[in-house]
From TrEMBL:
SMART domains: HhH1 (SM00278). GO terms for molecular function: ATP binding; four-way junction DNA binding; four-way junction helicase activity. It comes from Fuscibacter oryzae. It comes from the Bacteria. Gene3D superfamilies: 5' to 3' exonuclease, C-terminal subdomain (1.10.150.20), DNA helicase RuvA subunit, C-terminal domain (1.10.8.10), Nucleic acid-binding proteins (2.40.50.140). One of its GO terms (cellular component) is cytoplasm. This is Holliday junction branch migration complex subunit RuvA.
Length: 224
């Protein structure tokens, strides 16, 4: 299994890239969102990958974070969602958007992905709503971006290698995951906690962990 590829970006297509790894070129399919975030041709690049194996086909799909890769693996378990449809959903919403849409039952958000109709969007929500909190809880650990600091790209005069800097997880993903973990530790059920955090994050996109916890507790408080 090819789990990660690090090399030089050799070519960009509309939905795939060619990565040169010491003379061997790998075609990797990526979402629009991932493609837009990649460096220029000739620069170092690194992606986590998932290999799709069929009788007549081998395809690599690439992701900037393990969080996105895990969401892709979960999405394709839904009947009718193939690897490309899962990429379209992630490319449209991103991993955080997918988490929020599934947790809140936002069918229209899933339908915004190209090629995803209402029945398929509904199936995604119904089949994955109970599984979404598990990935959300792992958000901090899985949201680090793949790095290409260890890639060897031969040039006439290679610059001195700088010390690799650890990747910081995206703040929003960290805040959401930390808030969810805190609520679960307080005794709330994972499903209820995930829905409250997703709602709070949607209402206040810039909220940090503390603000998300406060807002979520208000949502979880008994009514009446």
């Amino acid at each position: 299994m090819i789990g990660k590829i690090s090399g030089r970006l050799d070519w960009r297509g509309s939905d795939s890239v060619l990565i040169d790894v010491r003379g061997v070129g790998y075609v990797v399919h990526v979402s629009d969102r991932t493609l837009a975030g990649l460096p220029g041709v000739g620069e170092a690049v690194s992606l986590y990958t998932e290999l799709l194996v069929r009788e007549d086909l081998l395809q690599l799909f690439g992701f900037p974070t393990m969080l996105e890769k895990e969401w892709h693996k979960l999405l394709v378990t839904v009947q009718g969602v193939g690897a490309k449809a899962a990429m379209a959903i992630l490319g449209t919403l991103g991993p955080e958007g997918v988490s929020r849409a599934i947790t809140l039952g936002d069918q229209r958000a899933i339908q915004a992905a190209p090629g995803v109709g209402p029945k398929l969007a509904q199936r995604v929500i119904l089949e994955l709503k109970s599984k979404a909190p598990g990935i959300m809880a792992m958000g901090v650990r899985l949201s680090a971006t793949a790095h290409a600091d260890d890639v060897v790209i031969e040039t006439e005069a290679p610059p001195p290698k700088r010390a690799a800097k650890p990747a910081a997880p995206p703040p929003r993903a960290a805040y959401t995951a930390d808030a969810l973990s805190a609520l679960i530790n307080l005794g709330y059920g994972q499903g209820d906690a995930a829905q409250a955090v997703a709602t709070a994050a949607g209402d206040a996109p810039e909220a940090d962990t503390a603000a998300l916890i406060r807002a979520s507790l208000k949502l979880l408080a008994p009514k009446g």
